[in-house]
Amino acid sequence: MHHQNSVFKAVLKHLPWGEFERLVEEHGADERQRGFSTKTQLVALIYGQLSGSLSLREIEAGLSSHAAHRYHLGIGEVRRSSLADANRYRPSAVFSDVLELMMKRAHRGLRRKLAGVTYLIDSTGLSLSGLSARWARFSAEVCGAKVHIVYDPAADLPVYSAVSTANLNDITAAKAMPIEPGATYVFDLGYYDYGWWAELDAKGCRIVTRLKRNTPFTVCQTRPMPQAGNILSDRIGYLPARQAMNRKNPLNKRVREIQVKIDTGKVLRIFTNDLDASAEEIADLYKLRWAIELFFRWIKQTLKITRFLGTSENAIRIQVAVALITFLLLRLAQATQKVVTSPLAFARLIRANLMHRRDVTALLGPPPAISISLNQLALL
Question: In this predicted model, what pLDDT tens digit does every residue of 198-227 receive, in sequence order?
Answer without folding.
Answer: 999 999 999 999 999 999 999 999 998 877
